[in-house]
Amino acid sequence: MSVEIYEGYGFRYVHDPETPGRIRIYLEQGPNHADMAANPERFGLERCGTRAPPFLAFGVRDKPGTITDAKRRARSWAASQRGEAHEGAGPRAGAGSRPPPPGERARVPDLGDGGPPPPAVVGVDAGRLGSCLLARVRGQDRAVAAIADEAARHTAKTQPRRPLSLFMIGTTGVGKTLAARCLAEALSAESGAGYGWLRLDMCEYQERHRVSQLLGAPQGYIGHGDGAQLTDALRRNPRTVVLFDEIEKAHPDIFRTLMNAMDVGRLSSPTVRDGNWEIDCRHALFCFTSNIDAGAIIGTLAQQGVLDDPKAIDAQCRSRLRSSSLPAELVGRITRFIPFVPITDDIRAEVAALGIQELGREYGLTVTRVAPDVTGFVLSEAGDTLFGVRPDEYLADRLLGPVFAAAARIRPGRRVAIVMKDGTPRVLDVPG
Ligand SMILES: Nc1ncnc2c1ncn2[C@@H]1O[C@H](COP(=O)(O)OP(=O)(O)O)[C@@H](O)[C@H]1O
Ligand SMILES: [Mg+2]
Fold it and tell me: Which ligand is nearest to the CA of 348?
C-alpha cells in the first residue's frame, strides 16, 4: 500500500474496522480540512472513527472490487477536491473524476495490507513454560501458572483475533516486571520461534508529545521519520511480549490507542513503513503492570481464600480498578488479571541467595554455594520488605561486593562458596 501526497493532502487508507466493505481514509491535512470536519457530507464522505485531529477519518464506500480500486477512487476523489481531473493508477494520469458513489462496497481482505502472518510456532506446553518461569520468579506459583496457561493458549492460535492482554497486579518489587521479561525468554526457548521483548516504562509516557515516540509522528510533524518504539518493535517481530510497565502513569492518548489495538488487533501508526501504516498486533502479548490498590486487592483475595479462583480475581480486580484512574474501557478489555502476592520471608531468602550468586557473576566469580547465614546477614541489615526484594539486591552489593572484588583480584573466574566467619562474610575456594 502506498501513500500519495496531493498538494497538502496526506493520505492513508485502511479497511474500516467497524464497517466491513468500507474504506476509511485518514486525511492528515489539506485545504478543506476544517470544512470537511464540519460538513463531511458535502464532500461525499461520512465521518467515522473516534480518531482525534490531526487526522480526520472518513469512510468512502466503493464499488465491489479490490482495495486497489478503492484507493484509485479515493485518489480521484482527492483530485476532484483540488478541482483537478484525475483518473487511473498514476497520480497525474488521465482525466475526469467524481467522488466515489455512495452505497457501493469494496471487497475487504482479511486484515488490511498488514503483510503475511508470522510463521507458525511449535506448540508451547503450559506446564513446561510455567516451570521455566518459576525457576526465575520465585514464590509466585499461581501467577506464573496463570501466565503460562494464557501464553500457551495464545501462541497455539494461528489466527488470533486480538493480542493477549495480561494485567499483573501487585505491590512493588514482587516480580511483575521480572515475570514479563522471563516470559519472552521462556517463549523463545519453548516455541523455537524468536519472541521479541519490549519494556515500555509508562512513567516516560505521561505527556502527550511522547505518544509519537511510541507510535510515530505524522508527516509534517516533529519527530516524523524518527521511528517509534512500539510500532517498530511489532513490525520487526509480530510475536513480541510488550510490557506496559506501571500502566496507570500513561497519558490518556496511550490508553485510547491501546484500547483500539486490543479490540481489533491492529495498531495505527501515523508513520508509513514499507507502504503500511497499520500494524498487526494479534500475535503480540501485552503485559500491563500496576500497583494501584494492589495491597487492598490482594489482601481481600487472600482473606476470602480465592487466590486460586480466576472468576473471583476477575470480579475483584475489575470492580476495584473501575474506580481507579484507569479508564473502564481499558480494564474491560483485559484478558486476565494476575495477582502477585507479597514475598514471604522464605522466598525473600531464596531470592536473596540467587541475587548473591548473580552478584558473584558480576565480579567474575562462580558462586556455587551461599551459606544461609550469609543471606540472613544481608536480610537482617535490609529490614522490612516494604519495597519488595529490590532493595536487598542493592544492599547485598554494598555488603558483599568488596569481598567478591578482593577474591576476584586474587584469581578471576574462581569457583567459590560464600560463608560467614566471625560475623563477617568470607569467600572459600570450591574444588572443581
Ligand atoms: N518473585 C521474585 N523472584 C525472584 N526475584 C524477584 C522476585 N521479585 C522481585 N525479584 C527481584 O527484584 C527485582 C525487582 O523486581 P520486579 O520484577 O522489577 O518487581 P515489580 O513487581 O515491582 O515489577 C527483580 O529484578 C528481581 O531480581
Ligand atoms: Mg516493575
Answer: 1
Shared-domain flag, residues 353 and 298: no
Task: Give the count of alpha carbons within 13 A of 269, CB side only.
Answer: 29
Nearest residue (by CA) to ligand 1, atom 7, is 175
> Which listed ligand is nearest to 387 at the C-alpha?
1
Domain count, the chain: 3
Q: Which ligand is nearest to the CA of 175?
A: 1
Q: How confident is the model at residue 223 (pLDDT cuts 50, 70, 90)?
A: low
Helices 126-136 & 176-191 angle (0-180, nearest 10): 140
* Number of the ligand 1 atom closest to the C-alpha atom of 245: 23
Overall average pLDDT of the 211-232 stretch: 71
Q: Considering the entire predicted model, what is its pTM?
A: 0.70
Query: Does a structural domain hold residue 97?
Result: no
- The residue type found at 70 is A
pLDDT digit string, tens, across residues 38-76? 666 665 566 665 544 434 555 554 444 444 555 565 566
359-390 pLDDT, tens per residue? Answer: 999 999 999 999 999 999 988 887 776 566 77
- What is the best residue among 142, 167, 177, 178 to mutate for testing ligand 1's pocket, by most ligand atoms within 8 Å of CB? 178
Task: Kindly list the protein residues whose Cβ atom lies closer than 6 A to any atom of ligand 1.
Answer: 137-140, 170, 172-178, 289, 351, 355, 388-390, 393
pLDDT of residue 107: 27
DSSP state of 27: E
Contact 318, 341 (CB under 8 A): no
As a whole number of angstroms, the distance between CA 21 and CA 15 comes to 7
Report how far residue 257's alpha carbon sits from residue 269's, in angstroms, rounded to the nearest whole number.
Answer: 10
Tell how far the Cα of 86 is from the centroid of ligand 2, in angstroms. 55
Claim to verify: residue 202 and residue 280 sit in the same structural domain: yes
